[in-house]
UniProtKB/TrEMBL annotation:
<dbReference type="Pfam" id="PF10383">
    <property type="entry name" value="Clr2"/>
</dbReference>
<dbReference type="GO" id="GO:0030466">
    <property type="term" value="P:silent mating-type cassette heterochromatin formation"/>
</dbReference>
<dbReference type="InterPro" id="IPR038986">
    <property type="entry name" value="Clr2"/>
</dbReference>
<dbReference type="GO" id="GO:0070824">
    <property type="term" value="C:SHREC complex"/>
</dbReference>
<dbReference type="GO" id="GO:0031934">
    <property type="term" value="C:mating-type region heterochromatin"/>
</dbReference>
<dbReference type="GO" id="GO:0033553">
    <property type="term" value="C:rDNA heterochromatin"/>
</dbReference>
<protein>
    <recommendedName>
        <fullName>Cryptic loci regulator 2 C-terminal domain-containing protein</fullName>
    </recommendedName>
</protein>
<feature type="region of interest" description="Disordered">
    <location>
        <begin position="1"/>
        <end position="29"/>
    </location>
</feature>
<feature type="compositionally biased region" description="Polar residues">
    <location>
        <begin position="17"/>
        <end position="26"/>
    </location>
</feature>
<dbReference type="InterPro" id="IPR018839">
    <property type="entry name" value="Tscrpt-silencing_Clr2_C"/>
</dbReference>
<feature type="compositionally biased region" description="Acidic residues">
    <location>
        <begin position="498"/>
        <end position="518"/>
    </location>
</feature>
<feature type="region of interest" description="Disordered">
    <location>
        <begin position="453"/>
        <end position="541"/>
    </location>
</feature>
<feature type="domain" description="Cryptic loci regulator 2 C-terminal">
    <location>
        <begin position="234"/>
        <end position="375"/>
    </location>
</feature>
Length: 541
């Protein structure tokens, strides 16, 4: 490969820049490509360490205003509460005369009536949480609907049915309800909640949600640090499949070396390791400044944090997070240390906890993450078990099924990377506001207003307009690069409007089959036993 700044032979059919051209000029005449600017700084100076600023980008301006407020709420809310943008299972009706409980005789979640007779399994739907209650929630709300005024508009979660992410019919987004917490369960636990129900009996929205289980997108890129030709972009949170994970969350880690095929050959292994997230890093590896379509040859994502285990043998055992200097009989954390290490309450109820890697930060990839670690009492009330692996089989089966059915995932890859949550979910409307190709801001009048406002922002921040190089027509707010380590990105990274219907013309028959229910068979797992002030989606869309 030629050194940066060397002269290369022109390719036939491409424009040849004159010597006076600045080939490093950031692209996109409307919104400057700030990520390319940061890459240029890194390659010219050899290092970079500064906050991310996109003053002309309306998305970034709004994010600076709204997301910090919701981030503070996330750090204080219990882990069992659904979050904006998450996928959940929810019940439209049927709980007027009872609460959802686990029937010990059948192992199913059923509705008992006031006469203590079981009324059977409710009809579950899958949807996206677009608004959370204004009032504070408590553990009792998992089983009892708050009896207060003025009603569910203030004490319920707004949940919108999820349309097929690849289909043209998005009318499900108009079907929504304000749902009490007791009618909601995390989508990752679909295998427990839908126990003994064959998939052809499910509501179509559940299969739609299964399709996006192998997708991810980061939230609020706020700082960039780099050296030589590599850099890391710090993010506040990340959507992985159905869940939103933020810094300071405790997440459950998949047993080391476990593959999906292993689950078909024996019982579900125990989860023993939990990580408290300290950093979420989007990485650009081997950055380039002469490619109009990519900023780096490779990219990936790392989640960093401190790892704890409830299996003392793993402290010294040869594994990814072992501590070779640990004593033969490691000492568990004291109650005060557990209280300091985890923000969730009553984590001591899971048993004694031990430090891994001598308390140093460890790194994991997307594949190692199972989901949030819930408070023990909340896990009891929602799932009837405190085992950390209660949803392990469901999460891995969901991701495997998604990798086979989500046509946005390139062959040989296992993940779909979207620029925002609206793109990964394939929705065109959230909270009644259009966010897809038909959005009002996409028409001529809307574009004129946006352009005028951007010019005002340029003058306010003294940012000169940039001219795109002759060979570059691509623009996006997302860092670009070739995925590595099993990560897959979409062919068009940008907002939801980038993914138009033409992207899937070659798969029209596949979409028709999927929407009609003629889809690949799910593994027969729904019957397996497993050991036992209002904020809205506008902040993330």
């Amino acid at each position: 490969m030629k050194e940066r700044g060397s002269v290369s032979e022109p390719v036939a059919g491409t424009a040849v820049p004159t010597p006076s051209d600045n080939t490093r000029q950031p692209t996109d005449a409307e919104v400057p490509d700030f990520w390319r600017t940061y890459v240029v700084k890194l390659l010219e100076n050899g290092e970079i360490d500064e906050p991310v600023r996109e003053p002309v980008s309306f998305d970034s301006v709004l994010a600076h205003r709204w997301i910090p407020r919701y981030g503070m709420k996330l750090s204080s809310d219990p882990a069992y509460l659904p979050r904006c943008g998450e996928l959940v299972l929810w019940i439209c009706d049927g709980l007027e005369d009872g609460s959802l409980t686990l029937n010990p005789a059948t192992g199913r979640h059923e509705i008992p009536g006031n006469d203590h007779l079981r009324h059977g399994v409710p009809c579950w739907h899958a949807g996206v949480v677009t608004q959370i209650p204004a009032k504070d929630m408590h553990l009792g709300d998992i089983t009892v609907t708050p009896d207060d005024q003025p009603g569910l508009i203030y004490s319920g979660f707004r949940v919108e049915a999820l349309p097929h992410p690849l289909g043209n019919d998005k009318s499900y987004s108009k079907q929504y309800a304000y749902v009490p917490l007791r009618n909601i369960r995390p989508f990752n636990a679909w295998q427990i909640i839908l126990k003994d129900q064959h998939w052809d009996k499910w509501h179509p929205s559940i299969l739609n949600a299964m399709t996006v289980m192998s997708s991810w997108s980061v939230v609020r890129k706020y700082h960039i640090v780099g050296k030589d030709r590599n850099c890391s972009i710090h993010c506040k949170a990340i959507f992985i499949g159905s869940e939103l994970l933020a810094v300071s969350d405790a997440i459950r880690l998949k047993p080391e070396g476990l593959e999906y095929s292993d689950l078909q050959q024996g019982p579900v292994p125990k989860i023993t390791d939990v990580m408290v997230i300290t950093k979420i890093l989007f990485q650009l590896i081997d950055c380039v400044d002469n490619d109009p379509y990519q900023l780096a040859k490779h990219n990936g994502l790392l989640i960093s944090g401190r790892v704890y285990t409830n299996d003392p043998s793993r402290v010294r055992k040869s594994c990814a997070f072992h501590d070779p200097t640990a004593k033969d009989n490691p000492q568990p954390l004291t109650q005060h240390q557990v209280f300091t290490a985890f923000r969730q309450a009553n984590m001591c109820d899971y048993g004694p906890w031990y430090k891994m890697a001598n308390g140093e930060e460890c790194n994991v990839t997307l594949d190692a993450v199972v989901g949030r670690c819930y408070e023990p009492i909340a896990a009891d009330l929602m799932f009837g078990t405190r085992s950390l692996e209660f949803d392990l089989l469901g999460v891995m089966e969901g991701r495997n099924w998604s990798a086979q059915t989500d046509l946005r995932i390139p062959d040989g890859m296992t993940w779909f990377w979207g620029e925002c949550r609206a793109e990964t979910l394939g929705v065109t409307e959230l909270l009644g506001i259009e966010c897809g190709p038909s959005a009002p801001q996409g028409d001529g009048n809307g574009q004129a207003i946006v352009s005028t406002a951007r010019e005002s922002r340029r003058r306010q921040d003294q940012i000169p307009a940039s001219e795109p190089p002759a060979t570059a027509t691509y623009s996006s707010s997302a860092p670009q690069g070739e995925q590595r380590g099993g990560l897959a990105q979409s062919s068009n990274i940008g907002d939801a409007s980038d993914n138009n219907d033409n992207d899937y013309d070659d798969h029209e028959n596949d979409l028709t089959d999927a929407e009609s229910g003629d889809i690949p068979e799910l593994p027969p797992s729904a019957g397996h036993d497993v050991a036992t002030e209002s904020d809205s989606m506008e902040d993330f869309a």
